[in-house]
TrEMBL record:
Pfam families (alphabetical): Gcw_chp (PF09694)
Entry protein name: Porin
Highest rank taxon of the organism: Bacteria
Keyword annotations of the record: Signal
Keyword Signal carried by entry: yes
Signal peptide: 1-28
Organism: Halochromatium glycolicum
Amino acid sequence: MKTQRFGIAAVSGAVLSGSLLMSAPALAQQPWSFSANIGAVSNYIWRGVTQTGDQAAIQGGIDVGHESGFYAGTWASNIDWDEGGSEDVVGIVPVDPNTGLPMTDADGNYIVEGVTSGSDPASPNYELDFYAGFSGAINDDVSYDIGAIYYAYPDGRESDFAEISLSGSFKWFTLGVAYTVYGENDDGLFDDGDLYYFGGADFALPYDFGLSLRAGYYQFENDDVVVGSVTDTSGNVIDLTESANYWHYGASITREAGDFGTFGLNWDQNNGDQEVGYDTDPKIWVSWSKEF
């Protein structure tokens, strides 16, 4: 399973990161348009979960769009899923009632009732996304977007995954779903079959301010995460599991500042199981982005 994405670890709404949706770049009068963006955030939040251990991130991307509605682009950010390369074991070693000795498995290793904590030395340092899709409008109030995105972590363990998504918007409101079609974390989180449901609303406020609301629900195909273990009277180790599925929600207030870009004040939170590794504390973070 991924780190936070848990303590486990694309682009619209108020800022370049931590958003619910990926949207096509604005089109100019020519058939093709090109743009670039750069941003800085005090915390990279993705679907309600920090990707930087509550630390800052520098982000940016390049987009191309066609008047037909086709768009494609790439986007990158630094990430930090952990803080080192060690692993500590927390728990107790049960005593065999027949021998009075600590219990071991078939290989002679102590059986530990508890959970492991620490960090993975193969944790990646940056995320690189590639996306493409098609967006269009049925009328002035109704629009849609069909997209695909590949999340890559080139310098870390096998964590890449890919999604396809479908969303529809009516005036200020958007609803959609993303489906994971490929994942390198076999039989774990962010593998084939995961579903992510999302919704949001964007409102223009006076004096170039904007208000964005967002919420989402992650339904993992392999949602059971081992959080500990117990030993029965026969000496068999039984894993204790909790569901990794979770809701998240948030809001942003942004201010357009002309050539100085867009500034944002943001709040995000999730209700995941803390035994799984979710940090459920509210996250308040600031952001800046600019498009060229």
